[in-house]
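WARN  no MSA supplied for this record, continuing single-sequence
INFO  ligand: flavin-adenine dinucleotide
INFO  echoing inputs
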Amino acid sequence: MTSTAKIGDLLAKRRTLSFEFFPPATSKGVEQLNRTLADLSVLNPAFVSVTTGAGGSKTDTTRDVVIEMQQKSPFPVMAHLTCAQHNRKQIRALLDSYSSSGVFNILALAGDPPEEAEAVAALEREESDEAASSTLRYASELVAEIRNHSVVFGIGVAAHPEVHPRSTSRQADRRYLAEKLAAADFAITQFFFDKAHYLRLREELAALGCYKPIIPGIMPVTSPDRIAHFANMNGTEIDRQLWDRLEPATTQDRHKIATDYAITQCQELLAESAPGIHLYSMNQSQICVSILKEIHTL
Ligand code: FAD
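INFO  complex generated
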């Protein structure tokens, strides 16, 4: 495997293991991420990815983190890119910067702008034709922009097994997703707990003629409050029985409960022919290492 491989090509050959990181905001966070990357690199992931614009931030360090990580990794590092953070011109400049640094995989996302910024952007869109043509709204537009670039990138997109919270209907959600995926190479899902949501998503896309690989995103629940907050934002149904066990547990017991739960999720999804596993690492290696000790089919 080379670090310039396209993830779609890797998926065509075998199941993939991948980890997601976020760009650290402090020097302590940088040290933590470096340690985590070193620990997880030993597990030979097919690729890793780095988020951008968490909480609508416009000042994160994704670009620098991605490029630095790519330079020291033997596997591809995928950069998350959102419509919410950048206009067309900025996106083109970022793509130039990524390709000239050996980064050839992008996760194309709409992103979630903060309410205030969203209101200003909407006003700008209404007031100016130029602003309208330079601003992207949906991930599918970003996919098209990346495909138009002179360099060929591998492109992933997001999928929401439980339907995106802004979707007007389940049918519309699946139709837009199938259209977006037709122009991309693969999708990674939002986290979910009940595998039935993933299986239904796959069936609904197949009914629309879409058979692109959909990698399930698995979130180990080490911090129930934090993950419940994310679940609430994404419209993810939490597993009440899991929370009832986690909430009163000690930190050590929580680790064991969350690890065992994620192992079962991964095993069941792989048994259902999932094309890979994407672990939301939260920049922590310990639980990912514990989970992967038990997964022998990746
Ligand atoms: P889209 O595909 O654009 O869909 C958004 C909504 O618009 C959906 O309801 C869809 O049905 C609808 N829609 C799509 N096309 C059309 C159309 N043509 N007309 C009308 N409606 C349409 N966010 C970040 O800010 N940074 C990250 O790094 C990040 N990483 C993520 C990684 C993964 C694996 C996942 C699953 C999500 C990630 N997100 C991230 C969150 C994501 O940006 C949000 O969920 C966002 O609200 C939707 O993004 P999307 O790319 O799915 O949007």
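Residues 51-53, 80, 82, 109-112, 138-140, 158, 164, 166-167, 172-173, 176, 180, 188-190, 217 surround flavin-adenine dinucleotide (CB under 6 Å).
INFO  checksum written, moving to next record
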